[in-house]
Amino acid sequence: MKKLINDPQNVVAESVEGFGWAHADIVAVSFDPDFVSRAGGAVAGKVGLVSGGGSGHEPLHAGFVGVGMLDAAVPGAVFTSPTPDQIAPAIAAANGGAGVLAIVKNYTGDVLNFETAVELAEADDIEVSTVIVNDDVAVLDSLYTAGRRGVAGTVCVEKIAGAAAERGDNLAAVTAVAEHVIANVRTMGVALAACTVPHAGQPSFDLTDDEIEIGIGIHGEPGRRRIPLAPADDITEMLLTPVADDLALAAGDDVLLFVNGMGGTPASELYIVYRQARKLLEARGVRVTRSLVGNYVTSLEMQGASVTVLRLDSELTALWDAPVNTAAMHW
Amino acid sequence: MTLDVAWAVDWTRRTADEVFARRSELNELDRQIGDGDHGENMARGFTAVIARLDALEEPLGTVGDVLKLIATTLMSKVGGAAGPLYGTAYLRAAKVSATPALDAPGVVAMLEAALEGIVARGKATTGEKTMVDAWSPAVEAAVAGSTGGADAAAVLVSAASAAELGAVATIPLVATKGRASYLGERSAGHQDPGATSTAIVLRAASDAAAAHGA
After folding, report:
1. What is the distance in angstroms between the Cα of A219 and the nearest Cα belonging to chain B?
2. ipTM
């Protein structure tokens, strides 16, 4: 596997340093401990938003630091959650005196490390509230799993909660908005080929040329089942149907349709997926009133895509439309 | 016999050596049912642990001091699930080992505290295909050994062997905690990486005790 890297051990640090220089008008980068925060620091009186997780999902999360979205992002090693001694200072850097919301994707490591960091921050008298994003319908949310994973729907949570914080909502209200998004967003993904973690040097799972993996997460872990390659429309239906069913979408519902690339799939193919997903939603009488298509929550160079649907109401739509200025999302 | 600070340091160095030697094996086990980086994360953690041990200007006073150094380093360097779980295990073990040397009941108390910490953090029980499936039989074997009059080194031999058997016994299990649980039935047929690294840690403790007593 060829990679455009130097020493595999320095991938995250060198990438974050370049990111900081490229977007110096939007972000500031701290090293040792490593985290990314807004240029200009915390906004006084505003609820701070912090997220983080393993690296390899760029532009998540650092690409979403900026006005209207996150105040700080904490990158771990590739596909490995950051540590409490990184997360706690990021929470402090995001605190403008109105408390901090931590947005955590539901992976065992992320949850454990954020729990510890929040305890440290609270010991420093910072008010912290935590939401756990668990939008992945591929995983059964039962006693027999670690619960549904947090995947591409995280972008919706960060954007909308970020807008609520920016308009001046207090910590309880921003938390409630984030929970409202989490309750109404679902995702399912597919991989056509696995990705290769830089220091591992071999693909994170094995797929033959004519197999695809349905129900993947975003850390290179295998999915729920393996099937033969099929036309894009068929695969899209396998992704959209469980998402729409889980949300119990009904005729007349308004939704955001988000087709996310995993890093190695061209935009043209993402639009083929979007086209079919939209047709399927409209066949149910569901109105797609907002859309997002592109690489937002990636798994390194994995080939594949995920389909996310967020059920919208007027408030969520207004918050989605609110201005945002980050490295990866801007309107 | 008792196991002193020199033993604890030797245990730590042997653990690091074995983690480095078996880094690829741990990665490969994790690749089958997780995300393929357990060996990498453990190696990064123990590299930092050894660096801190080497940088000490004065020797540590108690077994607990050594374990606490490991705990804080793993918590700040490992990340993932392994960092908080091993970090908590070593931290709880350190709290009950604030003494210059451990006898057999002391070793048992240390292992019990480690297991309690892992269960408190990870909320897993036996049979869920996690490191608990190695720690739990290790603690049971240690208790049985100590109750039967075994010395500290013999207690660790029993614990290490039980952990190794426990790790192998995870192969047919279906994971219900941690990242492997996402695979459902497909997680069966693979040995759990965390249970495997647990067996490495406890075998290193036993080997260090054998070398120490000789």
Report:
1. 6
2. 0.74
